């Protein structure tokens, strides 16, 4: 048996040390929306909300990242890449002969490189999509197994 007192059984007149993550004496414990006990939650984690702007929530950082900011950054980045692609195409207009299987043709170098780049992106996206589908199927199968086990456990408990 240890010398420490259990805070749930300690008398109210004995001084107890405040532990991080637990409410201080005299403070009201706010219920959480996700069902986790307040003592196990990260104090810096915000509750999910559908409320309005940051002025409504003084504890929120008004300079936090948002979807609009991410979209703006992606648009600017894409614009810069587009400018570089236009420069690349303008500088690589010389024709080259491309032969693939029985097909043969003469195309500008820039077009050949851009088509190869686009094909690489498509094959990468295809591989990623197949992997995502595989993981989703596996997750659904595990969830079905969990539900089946819980149902069997509940039936056995009766």
From TrEMBL:
Q: Where is the composition biased (Basic and acidic residues)?
A: 41-64
Domain Lipopolysaccharide assembly protein A: start-end pairs:
91-151
For this UniProt entry, which segments traverse the membrane? 70-90, 110-132
Any Pfam family from its record, for instance, is LapA_dom
Residue span of region Disordered: 1-65
**Stated name of the protein:** Lipopolysaccharide assembly protein LapA domain-containing protein
Record keywords: Ion transport included?
A: no
Q: Does the keyword Membrane apply?
A: yes
Q: Name one GO cellular component term.
A: plasma membrane
Output compositional bias ranges, type Polar residues: 1-15
Tell me the keywords, alphabetical order.
Cell membrane, Membrane, Transmembrane, Transmembrane helix
